[in-house]
Amino acid sequence: MSELLLALDGALGPFSAALIAPDGSGTHAASLARNDALERGLSFVDELLAGRPLAEIRTVAVTVGPGTFTGLRIALSFAKSFAFARGLPLVGLSSYDVVERDGAPLPSAAFVTGRSGLVCGRLRLASETIVHCGSTGAVAEAFAQRLQRGATLECAGVLEGVASRLGELGVIVRVSIPAESPPALALARKALRREPAPSPHHVRADYGSQIYCAEQP
């Protein structure tokens, strides 16, 4: 019997799901055309399995945010319930990790759309990691203050408004190669290399409510 990882994302756009084998082969991914994950979530995963037994799913992964509030809650609730009910390990990944490419040179930044009217960004420097959520201007200015004028910053994710403001503030923006589509597929590939949480209860949502925080990486 095959072993599969099921990845679910509702934070970075329409609800999407992906299946992938531990060696990265046998990928299957799709997203819902409309935001009807609440009504079609269970049947959507069943359609993705395409007749394969549910028992082939051995690990579950989910994007924990920040991102679309309703979609994030639905995907996270589904993933936690499914993992708990079947006794499966659950991997939770930040939206920033999903959109940012592996091995991105420092400094690098990842941006996602948060709650209505907000953008959330993560700036990774050699010595610290900065997370800021707010208006596009406020986030860009907070990051520019941590960079030298003329610095090159690799940026990934939703850059509308942020990239232009960073440029006005003297930061050279280098747009990263977009992550795979749908987001659940990028999540699935990265989750293969991450350790699961001690239990599904340890996986919690990040709704992008932080105004500002800094932490050591």
Report what the structure shows.
Helix 1 (37-49) packs across helix 2 (69-86) and helix 4 (136-144) crosses helix 5 (162-168). This protein has two domains: 4-95 and 179-206, ATPase, nucleotide binding domain (Nucleotidyltransferase, domain 5); 100-175, Nucleotidyltransferase, domain 5 (2-Layer Sandwich), CATH 3.30.420. The strands form two sheets. The chain has a six-stranded mixed sheet. The protein is α/β, with parallel strands linked by helices and 217 residues long. It has helices spanning 37-49, 69-86, 95-99, 136-144, 162-168, 183-191; strands spanning 4-9, 16-20, 28-31, 57-63, 90-93, 108-113, 119-124, 129-134, 152-157, 172-175, 212-215. Strand 6 (108-113) and strand 7 (119-124) form a beta hairpin.
Please tell me the overall pLDDT. 90
Beta content: 25-35%
Radius of gyration: 18 Å
- State the separation between the terminal residues, measured CA to CA: 39 Å
Quickly name the level 1 CATH class of the largest domain: Alpha Beta
What's the architecture of the largest domain, going by CATH? 2-Layer Sandwich
The name of the CATH topology of the largest domain is: Nucleotidyltransferase, domain 5
